[in-house]
Write a structure and sequence with these properties.
single chain, 190 residues, Lipocalin, 55% strand
Length: 190
């Protein structure tokens, strides 16, 4: 009887530990984008996005923790205007020939209940790494009726000082340092 009790207790502990294990989610490239916005002389806002990306998210809802590692191909910048895209790719701005990737890595998630409210991490752009906090405008997990899997995602935003990454083009003409980043992400549980 004593062996049975201990076997049952051990099984219950292992089952609880298995439930608390973080889940791995693969980035859904069709629903994940990083877009940027920067004022253009105070008259309008220039916008663009990076079309190619890859990465994963680890989420432990019970443990209120997570990790993320996402890489964006900066040469895939898309503003809708080919000449502007080419200028952004040049060594005056994103220098995609020398620095073809931007990467965001984090292991610090903030929660309110089951919802992620912010993610603290490090953004690497042009070979320079700076701390960044992405604040969630919304976040949810749902059972995808097409994929028959859980999908988690949200819209996150932050503002960075582009000069901290060495992007100084146009500062002398009055272009602002601040660039707003909006990251739309959905990831599929594996």
């Amino acid at each position: 009887m004593r062996k049975s009790f201990f076997a049952l207790a051990a099984t219950a502990v292992l089952a609880t530990a298995a439930q608390a294990a973080p889940a791995i989610y693969a980035i859904d490239p069709a629903h994940t984008f990083a877009t940027f916005e920067i004022s253009h002389f105070g008259a309008s806002v220039n916008r663009g996005r990076f079309d190619r990306k890859e990465g994963s998210v680890q989420l432990d809802k019970a443990g209120k923790s997570g990790k993320v590692d996402i890489t964006f191909d900066v040469a895939s910048v898309n503003t809708g205007t080919a000449a502007f895209d080419k200028h952004l790719q040049s060594n005056e701005l994103l220098d995609t020939a020398k620095h073809p990737k931007a990467r965001f890595v984090s292991d610090k998630f903030h929660f309110n209940g089951d919802n992620v409210t912010a993610v603290d991490g490090k953004l690497t752009l042009l070979g320079k790494t700076q701390p960044v906090t992405l604040k969630a405008n919304q976040f949810a997990c749902y059972d995808n009726p097409i994929l028959k899997r859980e999908v988690c995602g949200g819209d996150f935003a932050t503002t960075i000082d582009r000069t901290a990454f060495g992007v100084n083009y146009g500062i002398d003409w009055g272009f602002p340092k601040d660039v707003r980043l909006v990251v739309q992400i959905e990831a599929v549980k594996q």
